[in-house]
Design goal:
This protein is of the alpha/beta class. It is built from 12 helices and 5 strands. Helix 4 packs parallel to helix 10, helix 5 packs across helix 10 and helix 10 packs antiparallel against helix 11. The longest helix has 35 residues.
């Protein structure tokens, strides 16, 4: 090895040799390395790539609900067969937010205890969980988040039934789990949050149906869930100009405060994350 090579040269070489097929990279930035991996040119003026991705969210949520209906039914039946009494969601970053929102869905729709934990915290802090009759759901857009893979492996070794909820198939997380649900999307883009949340919400609904929860209430939720892509399209259409106006008004802001509670808390975390990534505040 040439010891005179500086770090910048090594990083550049690593970037040029990047193999996207390895599926080990995720980000949500407008930087060349990211879009080079996706064969997309970075945009430095509106409409940004991320703007286009935001507008595609309804399309991919619709695709998720259409394509994963049968796999979700099979998973709900397997959970019923295994007498699952509790669900634990494990993830990092955006995936942790998905898990928190999904736990609320399981409380309401399936009527069973559900918790969420940061994968790294579960590993490093030695948190003790009763895994008897527990489904542990590993959440990762790329399917390769190291801490989540390791937590799912540990939970499976301890006797839990495990599920990988990802946006890319044939990854370390899907290999580690008993079963997997692969939502459309992937690559760490903004649609990875709503597509996976739609799927785990549908799973909570179907498992609640298997457990004999109120049929009329669940039917109502299912109808609303099917309408979700249409509602998202309408919200995005009417919010576009308002968001541009707010963006101009907030251009000198130093911070954004998002007061909320309950089931909206995970959404607030996700909004805060996007402000940090895109607006750097």
């Amino acid at each position: 090895m040439n010891k005179n090579r500086n770090l910048k040269e090594q990083v550049l070489e690593s970037t040029l040799k990047f193999q996207f097929e390895n599926q080990d990279y995720e980000s949500a930035r407008e930087h060349p390395t990211y879009y080079r991996a996706l064969n997309r040119e970075p945009r430095t003026t509106h409409p940004f790539n991320i703007y286009t991705d935001i507008l595609r969210q309804p399309e991919l949520v619709r695709l998720a609900l259409d394509e994963l209906g049968e796999p979700v039914l099979e998973m709900a039946a397997e959970m019923n067969h295994r007498s699952i009494r509790r669900v634990l969601f494990s993830g990092v970053g955006c995936s942790y937010h998905v898990g928190a929102a999904a736990a609320h869905a399981f409380w309401r729709l399936a009527g069973i205890p559900a918790e969420y934990v940061q994968s790294a915290e579960a590993l490093a802090a030695g948190q003790v969980f009763d895994l008897d009759g527990t489904l542990v759901v590993g959440l990762s857009a790329s399917g390769n988040t190291l801490e989540t893979v390791q937590h799912l492996q540990a939970a499976r070794a301890a006797g839990a039934y495990t599920l990988a909820c990802v946006n890319l198939d044939q990854t370390r997380l899907t290999d580690a789990a008993h079963a997997s649900l692969v939502a459309p999307g992937g690559y760490g883009l903004v649609w990875d949050y709503p597509t996976r949340l739609a799927i785990v919400t549908l799973l909570a609904l179907e498992f609640g149906r298997n457990r004999g929860r109120g049929q009329a209430d669940l039917d109502t939720v299912q109808v609303e869930l099917k309408k979700l892509p249409e509602i998202m399209e309408a919200v995005l259409a009417r919010s576009d100009q308002r968001c541009m106006q707010f963006g101009r008004e907030l251009s000198t802001a130093q911070a954004v405060l998002l007061p909320t509670t309950g089931g909206q808390m995970p959404n607030a975390w996700e909004i805060a994350l996007r402000f940090e990534e895109m607006a750097h505040i």
